[in-house]
Design goal:
About 40% of the residues are buried. With about 300 residues, the protein is α/β, with parallel strands linked by helices. Helix 4 (about 115-125) packs antiparallel against helix 5 (about 140-155) and helix 5 (about 140-155) runs parallel beside helix 6 (about 170-185). It has 2 domains: about 5-225, Rossmann fold; about 225-295, Alpha-Beta Plaits, CATH 3.30.70. It has a 6-stranded mixed sheet with strand order 6-7-8-3-9-10, with helices on both faces. The protein has helices spanning about 45-50, 80-85, 100-110, 115-125, 140-155, 170-185, 200, 220-225, 235-245, 270-275, 285-295, and strands at about 5-15, 20-30, 35-40, 60-65, 70-75, 85-90, 160, 190-195, 205-210, 215-220, 230-235, 245-255, 255-265, 280-285. It is about 35% helix and about 30% strand. The structure holds adenosine-5'-triphosphate. The site of adenosine-5'-triphosphate (ATP) has 11 residues, from helix 1. The site of adenosine-5'-triphosphate has 11 residues, from helix 1.
Length: about 300
Amino acid sequence: MTAALTVRTEDLSVRFAGVPALDRLDLRLAPGKIHGLLGRNGSGKSTLAATLAGFRRPDEGRVLIEGGDLGAAQEPYENAVVTSRVCLIREAGDRPDAVPVKYAVGLAAALRPYWDADLAGDLLDRFEVPLNKKIQKLSRGKKSALGVVLGLASRAPLTIFDESYLGMDVPSRNLFYDMLLADYAEVPRTIVLSTHLVSEVSAMLEEVVILDQGRLVTQSPVDALRGRGASIVGPAAAVDEFTAGFTVLAEERLGGTKSTTVLGDLDPALLAQATAAGLEIGPVGLQDLFVHLTGVKS
Ligand SMILES: Nc1ncnc2c1ncn2[C@@H]1O[C@H](COP(=O)(O)OP(=O)(O)OP(=O)(O)O)[C@@H](O)[C@H]1O
């Protein structure tokens, strides 16, 4: 039985040639949740994922992984007990690729204490990954699918997918999301999905970490983040009148109807005013908040 792990970073910095890729990060990833690790290109997501998985030694500060059958907090770097329980799947693969798929599957089965062979077989069938083909001869999408299979079937108490599924086409990615949710419901564990494609994964996430230029912008449950703003939909003139004075995150117009996403709290008096004006109030989209918080100009 997999028991989810808790991850903490304390004052974590990683530098390349003196330039910080991660800058004094203090984080806590709660056990048994699906976390989104979000940030623009170059924000430090892959560096953080690699450091959490023990692939990289921090330059300052530390990573601590605890709970489950690990018990007290331990650092992952050069620690085989921790790293056998932490599965990082990256687009690059990190596997020998002049060997058939079945070799990589056998290796994972030998190294992963919670490996589920039935699940692996089922997923290889569903993603149509041929067991006897050499990994280097697989298409990019099938290589990604192999990574997804190894990540899910490892049932590692901390499983990190670092944009490893982006090589797959949309139906395969949707299958990955479905299989991830189904297996996570059966065997809860701590999952991290690193991505800049926020809208695609936002419905699955329970908590998010947003990085920008190696620094922590925010760490928050998704619901709390969505509560930081609202979308107002209705007749364009009424929406414009109501949203004047708010920070506008996004606007969309279809004929006479407009949807404006704003930052800020809507108290009960404002909500009543909106209803009286015939406006509908909805939650703010994670993508809009992400764009705002990381300063992307749309
Ligand atoms: N091996 C390396 N050598 C030198 N600099 C690196 C190395 N790996 C990452 N960096 C730098 O560290 C910073 C963070 O990169 P990282 O790959 O962690 O970002 P990312 O958020 O995963 O980006 P992307 O979404 O583009 O994959 C970038 O400025 C990058 O150029």
